[in-house]
Design brief:
Number of strands: 0
Order of helices and strands: HHHHHHHHHHHH
GO cellular component, one term: plasma membrane
CATH class of the largest domain: Mainly Alpha
CATH superfamily of the largest domain: MetI-like
Number of helices: 12
Largest sheet: none
Structural class: mainly alpha
Keywords: Cell membrane, Membrane, Transmembrane, Transmembrane helix, Transport
Subcellular location: Cell membrane
Distance between the termini: 60 Å
Main location: membrane
Mean pLDDT: 79
Radius of gyration: 26 Å
Pfam families: BPD_transp_1
Number of domains: 2
Low-confidence stretches: 1-28
Length: 294
């Protein structure tokens, strides 16, 4: 009779690969429904645009609306092409985009700093919360004359207004992100003798990233609005000022074309922020969950 011996189980040594954080992997089968959901936006969105333009054309044609009040789509399209062909338009686009991005960047930096500080110091957040709320509920249009007096008619006043509008959603979301870290996770980091800096970079920073990008998606839209409103009410440069000049000359087609251009710029900037979210936090459910569904 033969006997077999087995070596006792040896403790497995953990390597750097074991300790590395792994992102959730969503395995999705390419079902017909998933493929249809992926191409659905490319069908529905153009169809909606066609329906809106057709309804617009029918309305102005049947109701015989004065083109100085509500121009037909063909006239707006022609004015849009002329607008894009004008080199001066792109100079104004550069000014507006610069104001938007500068205000957005300032809002993100200050929003992250203030949000982290208030998230770590609850007593400070309770103390200055009324001031923050007052600064946000006050009508921003009322600040424009003050900004013009303080910073002049140049780009600075528009950048400040864009930053003021975009600051609050970033700060609030970062604050919520810092507060969202569970006590048990902090206790685990403490048991590992992690320093405060290590706890922040390896736990809290990773936790607040989805909140930060959610705030940035809102902030880029508000920064666009702030820069355009600033140009509209207190500037001589940028697309907002071009809208004012088109309105003063009663050129409705050019006004609609400028509004269309501003809308496209805002959409492109929003999509850039959204793609940045997909690049920096592919492990979050808001990103990989959507991919799994499609």
């Amino acid at each position: 009779m033969s006997t077999s011996t087995q070596a006792p189980d040896q403790p497995r040594t953990r390597g750097p690969v074991d300790d590395a954080p792994t992102a959730p992997v969503a395995v999705a089968r390419r079902t017909p429904q998933g493929r249809f959901m992926k191409i659905l936006p490319w069908i529905v969105t153009p169809a909606l645009v066609i329906v809106i333009v057709a309804a617009w054309h029918l309305y102005v044609t049947i109701a015989k609306v004065n083109p100085f009040v509500f121009p037909p789509p063909a006239a707006v399209g022609e004015a849009f092409v002329v607008l894009l062909a004008d080199p001066a338009t792109w100079s104004e686009v550069g000014i507006t985009v610069t104001e938007i991005l500068a205000g957005f960047a300032i809002a993100v930096v200050l929003g992250v700093l203030v949000g982290v500080l208030l998230g770590k110091l609850p007593w400070l957040e309770l103390s200055i919360r009324p001031l923050i709320v007052i600064s946000q509920v006050a009508p921003k249009v009322a600040f424009i004359p003050l900004f013009v007096i303080w910073f002049g008619f140049g780009m600075t006043s528009k950048i400040v207004l864009a930053a003021l509008l975009a600051f609050f959603p970033v700060m609030l979301n970062v604050l919520l992100g810092v507060r969202s870290v569970e006590r048990g996770q902090r206790e685990v980091m403490s048991s590992l003798n992690a320093s405060r800096f290590q706890t922040f970079t390896q736990l809290e920073l990773r936790s607040l990233q989805p909140y930060l990008f959610a705030g940035m998606e809102v902030a880029i839209v508000l920064a666009t609005i702030g820069a355009i409103v600033g140009e509209y009410l207190g500037g001589s440069e940028g697309l907002g000022a071009m809208v004012v000049r088109a309105m003063n000359s009663l050129d409705a087609s050019r006004t609609f074309a400028l509004i269309l251009l501003l809308s496209l710029i805002g959409l492109v900037l929003y999509l850039i922020v959204n793609e940045a979210k997909r690049f920096f936090i592919p492990w979050h459910e808001s990103v990989y969950g959507l991919r799994a569904e499609t």
